[in-house]
Amino acid sequence: MPMPKFLSVHGAAAAVLLSALPAWAQSALPGFELEHLEINPGRGTAVMRSGELLVPGGMSLGLVGQYQQLPLVLLNGERRLEAVRNRASSVLAGSYGVLPWLEVGAQVPVVLWQQGDDPAPLGLTPLASQGLGTPEIQARLGLLSRRDDHPVDLSMDLGVGLPIGSAAVLGRDSGIRVRALAAIGTQVGFLKPALEAGVLLRSRNPLSGPSASGQMLEVRLGAGLTTAGQGLRGELAVKAAFAADMDQPAVEVLAGGRIPLSEGLELHALAGPGLGRTPGTPIARVLLGVSFRQEPPPRMEVLPEPVPQLRLEEFQKKPEYVPDSSVEPVPTRELLPPEPAPSPSP
């Protein structure tokens, strides 16, 4: 069968040989992890790390809901199948500060609802509408910290995806999923810039070719900018991913803000377009979430031995106290200036 002529359209599109699937044999769409965007469970923004770690004993919890439009479109010549037209999901994420240089976290994504075109005429079974995504556990290592008078915050994230998601909802890769990512951030005036760079070891996307198998190394980059302050704060993030099994880079631009609701509790919202036609890159994404962070105050430096606080009376009562014999007490009246002599009367 000749190779089909692929169409290039805006949005997330994957070229597959749909016509190669016999119409009388129902087959499932190859399972893989469709989601590209990562949620940040610790300090920073919802989608960007800042290089900061929680202080020991600090805790961060967050719940993010998101909507994606057209994250997966399949093209073959003139045929177009919107396999996933609309997708709503949520992510529960948390992080805990263990040591000044170590923070551990986890997140659990769930696809709440998704729908698309009926693939039955093409010999494909419909995707599941609900299911579990790929849960992840991670460790964040602090390398530099502005708390220690360094010019920037620098951290390294190591994450492992657990292969227990639902393949029927496109929530699980067929092989191991490991991530290593470095984040750096600082504050310049009222602005807080941050950068991310790392790699993701994952299964090769089965839609990239009829014999796609094995592991693939995906490069991930990110840049973010937030405003500092106590009230409403703005956020901007650009995320990109590159891999050999992608026809184009997956790029998303998200902008929004966050506002405090009470002490430690914040509400945040982000929205923006996706650029490219890589599976998992929607033409539009909207995030709405709430986060809670609680950290103990920094510990004060404690002297190794407390300095005794003694009053003068207690000090004089001690046996080793010997008053200096060369110093004699002076009556109070001798310290006063002499009274002037009375002037003679005329």
UniProtKB/TrEMBL annotation:
Residues 1-25 form the signal peptide. Residues 337-346 have a biased composition (Pro residues). It comes from the Bacteria. Residues 315-346 are annotated as: Disordered. Keywords: Signal. This is OmpA family protein.
